[in-house]
Amino acid sequence: MNRYSIKDIVNLAPVFEPPCVYKDQIAVINTQFYGHTRTRELFAIDAFAVGYITHGYGITEFNNDSYRLEPGCLFILAPTHTCRLAECSPDFTVRILLLDSNGHNLSVHLNYLVKSERWTQTYFHPVLRLNEKESKTMKQCLERIMEQIEREDCPNRIPFIRLATVWHHVELDNIMQIHMKDITDNGKPLTRQQALGRELYLLIVNNYRKEHQAKFYSEKMCLTPQYLNQITTNIFGKTLSAIITDLLFSTARSMLLSSDMSIQEISDELNFADQSSFSKFVKKIAGVSPNALRHSNPHQEVI
To answer: Could you tell me which of 78, 85, 73 has the C-alpha nearest to residue 14?
Structure first.
């Protein structure tokens, strides 16, 4: 399975108008997927992605569950989602907002939201169907973000981008609150594993930066590590360790590429024993040292 950064997506996506991008930390792209073979493969995005379907239809798989996407739908994906496009119409068009997966770089508000019950719920129900008024509101939010990204000569460009992004999050959070009552599991009660899986995912999201070992989550939930692995494999398609590793690397990569924190500071922030352990972790996954990964992107200005 391939993992794509914001920069990768911008370069790979078959766009029909220029993307709005700010230093690979935030991007808005309009893209058509018909005939694009890469999207038929299983992949993940090293970013938060909010997609708005504007034309046509597509059948997608998010974490092995199938969804039909058509105009009025939006999807919300976290870095731990797996994705695949099963089929789509020739005019299937999506406008996608891509956000640096290191939440506090974009806004404290996003970092707060992704830890809330509503946003955790979208991990299991990533697709919402908006009415005409809601669609218009979110379109305006995206256009506001694009306008601020394009203000290259504005001395307050970064604060304006941040404010436009927070506005988007708040409007989306408001819509999610309204739609919460409509988010169900097809009227069926949750199985024990599904209920435990949701509890576990929220626990991971709130603690993965400090707690890397399965033992912590096992003790918190009073369940054996073997049973937790069984739950995560059945529900998420990954072991507990793999989920934690994905989140840690996604956050570490984001900090390296879009912050001025030192390697030691990032190592401390993510609670590695020392800088050497952190470097070995990054090199094992990325194939290069943290310094080499950082120098692959010259942009260090943080939103």
So the answer is: 85
Nearest to 279 by CA among 242, 252, 243: 252
The predicted model scores a pTM of: 0.69
Question: What contacts 24+ positions apart, CB below 8 Å, involve 117-121?
Answer: 117/202, 118/173, 118/176, 118/177, 118/180, 119/76, 119/173, 119/176, 120/198, 120/201, 120/202, 120/205, 121/180, 121/183, 121/198
Pairing of strands 93-100, 43-45: unpaired
Beta bridge partners of 4: 45
Residue 147: phi, psi to the nearest 5? -60, -40
At the topology level of CATH, where does 192-295 sit?
A: Arc Repressor Mutant, subunit A (1.10.10)
Which run of H or of E encompasses 2? strand 2-4
Q: Phi, psi (5° rounding) for residue 100? A: -45, 130
**pLDDT tens digits, one per residue of 9-50:** 888 766 667 888 988 889 999 887 766 655 577 788 888 899
Amino acid at 13: A
* Beta carbons within 10 angstroms of residue 32's beta carbon: 20
How far is 94 from 75, CA to CA, in rounded Å? 10
For the chain, domain boundaries: 2-182, 192-295
Q: Read off the amino acid at residue 18.
A: P
Architecture of domain 2-182: Sandwich (2.60)
> Across residues 44-64, what is the average pLDDT?
88
Give the number of C-alpha atoms closer than 13 A to the C-alpha of residue 293, restricted to the C-beta side: 26
Contact assessment for residue 181 and residue 217, using Cβ atoms and an 8 Å cutoff: no
Report helix, strand or coil for 274: coil
